[in-house]
Amino acid sequence: MNQAIQLPDPWSMPLEQIDVSDTRLYEQDAWRPYFARLREEAPVHYRSESPFGPFWSVSRFEDIVAVDSNPQDFSSEPTIIIGDLGDDIPFEMFIAMDPPKHDVQRRAVQPVVAPQNLAQLEGLIRSRVTDILDNLPLDEEFDWVERVSINLTTQMLATLFDFPFEERSKLTYWSDIAAAAPEMTGGDVSREERVAGLTECLETFTRIWHERKGREEGFDLISLLQRDPHTADMVDRPMEFLGNLALLIVGGNDTTRNSITGGVLALNQNPAEYHKLRADHSLIPNMVSEIIRWQTPLAHMRRTAARDLEFHGQQIKKGDKVVMWYISGNRDETVIDRADEFIIDRPNARKHVSFGFGVHRCMGNRLAEMQLRILWEEIMQRFSFVEVVGATERVESNFVRGYTKLPVKLHAL
Amino acid sequence: MPKITLIEFNGQDHTIDAEPGKSLMQNAIDNMVPGIDADCGGACACGTCHCFVDEPWRESTGDVDAMEEAMLGMRPDRADNSRLSCQIQVSEAMDGMVVHLPEFQM
Ligand code: HEM
Ligand code: FES
After folding, report:
1. A15-412, which class in CATH?
2. Which of A368, A369, A374, A370 is nearest to A130 (CA)?
């Protein structure tokens, strides 16, 4: 951990010096007061220098909804993370496209995660969850991140892509490196490793694509892309193909993984909430939304101003980076009561910004919720408690909010 | 107060005394009609208040603006009579209106 330099005091430091892109805020879990001050004193805040260049921060719930629903003024091109895309691999993904191109591409892949399809998947997901949980040791310390969170989300991904099951750990690896270059979000994967890994990803999926070609049945993502006329030849546009793969792999992996871990942590920190859950399992769906709000698996999305405009009295110039801090919107007391608290039976728990809003609103939100719901239903059937028994380690990133380690011990019913 | 009937996908119907001036979404939520999530609280930004307006009342519900069109466009079950219920302001002209709810919101 990089604790040599102490973080500045959030309330007394000059406002303009606050830099919420500093990855230490997240690794040390120290971000709350910095955003509390921005929400109060500078809802549209300019930071003139940072490792990611100058940027505006939007920190209030309502303002985030406004920016997210206005793609004309706030463009998703060229990229949606605070840093710049490395020029090593010129990805093309619809999360980083504006309408109308975005809409065409999203419509082509959306059916795979439509609730109608998910209903078909529920049984398979439940059997995978059951398998994983039944093979965990009781009364013995192990790492929840590795044995449950990563394992489960990787199996889910393999299912969605109908990817060779024995090679599924590759999916996790590609997901880890896709958005982890230092210039992008402050991660620590070298350019060489990223290029090599993503090249292998593209080659592997291109091979799978050709093997699968002409197959009539199958509701996996590759088959669906092949059957839709808009995307049937996507394999011939490698950067678009790779971009969509990376989007679905990262979208469906890190976020769900960290929500699985975050839920265990939140319930350990809030024993009263855990007692509510034990007493009433029907709270699970509502709790799932609360976990996703509390965790906020993606801390931000970035936009780029498409013209000069004024917002909360600030002059934003065409080309400026505008960062929507979801992590802050989810703690906005003016919209969410007792926003810093984890309350599993919170009314209106679905009203959070973790999935974003507008045309880019998370495509996989129902899938993520379903996975978490099934997991907690099955945990309740097996264990009296998932106890955290050691220190958590957090990801050093201002984008992915997650954990690399969570030591736990399981107690029998 | 105009009476509006919302019919769930499974056929279960709910007739409510709607309050003019409020959105159809808000009226449905206030009357505990299931099948509408309204995650964004009516900002036309989530698409989880989708419904289908029966033909005779389509005109009374007004036009679909560009933003609503964009959100509706993301729905796999989008139909000609698709609307976001948070974008429909209830009026007296909607007395007797029938609205169908989709199988799923997303
Ligand atoms: C708890 C889990 C998840 C969280 C918190 C999450 C969060 C997000 C956020 C914040 C966005 C951008 C929204 C915006 O710009 O307004 C997004 C977009 C997206 N997510 Fe998720 N996500 C999750 C799970 C998933 C899963 C399981 C998938 C798998 C299919 C997925 C696929 C996508 C895709 C494809 C997009 C791009 C949508 C677009 O640009 O139109 N996500 N997600
Ligand atoms: S409530 Fe979100 S779009 Fe209508």
Report:
1. mainly alpha
2. A374
